[in-house]
Design a protein that fits this description.
Bound molecules: 5'-O-[(R)-(carboxyoxy)(hydroxy)phosphoryl]adenosine, zinc ion
CATH topology of the largest domain: Nucleotidyltransferase, domain 5
CATH architecture of the largest domain: 2-Layer Sandwich
Strand content: 15-25%
Strand order of the largest sheet: 5-4-1-2-3-6
Structural class: alpha/beta
Low-confidence stretches: none
Distance between the termini: 24 Å
Helix content: 25-40%
Shape: globular
Order of helices and strands: EEEHHEHEHEEEEHHHHEHH
Number of strands: 10
Length: 347
Amino acid sequence: MKILAIETSCDETAIAVLEIKKTRAGEEFSILSDQVASQIKIHAPFGGVVPNLAKLEHIKNLPILLKRALKEARLPLGSRASKLDAVAVTYGPGLEPALWTGIEFAKKLARLWRVALIPVNHLEGHIYSALMQKSKFKIQNGGIYPMLTLIVSGGHTELVLTKKRLQYKILGETLDDAAGEAFDKVARMLKLPYPGGPEISKLAKFGNSRAINFPRPMIHSKDLNFSFSGLKTSVLYYLREHKKFSKRNIASSFEEAVVDVLVRKTVKAAEQYKPHTIALGGGVAANDQLREELVRKFPNILLPDKRFTGDNAAMIATAAYYRFTRSKNTKRSKNIKATGNLRLSKG
Ligand code: KG4
Ligand code: ZN
């Protein structure tokens, strides 16, 4: 079957078309098209994402990406000729004005093509991204579960246990800033361009990670929660107290502190829940230091291809496939509502 997926939860407009073939061992996914239009340049002057600007950009980008995606996947745009089996769309979490643009667009397409509409949780997409290696990838039946995933993005930092397919338990999460958000805020303090995560990690490679001993908030707490706002504040104090400072050393020491906490809590969760598989997902999964430290602790960890760490629609289509095959019931889909604070459910 073929699924077209739409992602507009934040500052990336994305449309992908995937073909899924069922085999005895599991499923084979082929990415026929994977279109992403980044709005970074539009939001950069504001130092962060402006929800209403994001909405206008999505409205402008969606028809352009749709044409490109259908052309690349060799599918017709016309109403009756559709060879697609379903349209999927992210309905949360994210910025509601941005989410609505994707939902409205998806509803129109599903009506035009007379196919099912599948609502997808954005975080479920990030969880599946760890299983996506290239343009063709296989997902085997069972076997990988229970799976522990560290999701680290601009809006989320969560340790999630997937007990069985589509059954999630949030083991721990951030009590304040997300890891990516902390990267972005510290980058702003250092007057680095938005988004700050990639900029900090580039600088950090040339710095000394032991130069400054930043705090590791909650690293010894008994639970599996995180907190990054205190760390961010101590970078601010450091900048106030030092007239001369090395941006490289700050970047490197800050990155080390974040990675230390993320890795320590993942190890703790792994010891406690003894998962079969450990995986990483989300925008911050592009961070090399984090990837290296996790691999050191868990040599078999599933890391998403860097192509799929940031927001994309291919991961939404993958998650949609399993939602679709479990319940063909699409009645609910007519009432899809953008849900900014949507959480992963027990299934
Ligand atoms: O998953 P994502 O694309 O969007 C959300 O769902 O939030 O994550 C974006 C976040 C941003 O905060 C960005 O600064 C961060 O991921 N990021 C990084 C790196 N690349 C992106 N953070 C640290 N190191 C990186 N290399
Ligand atoms: Zn995301």
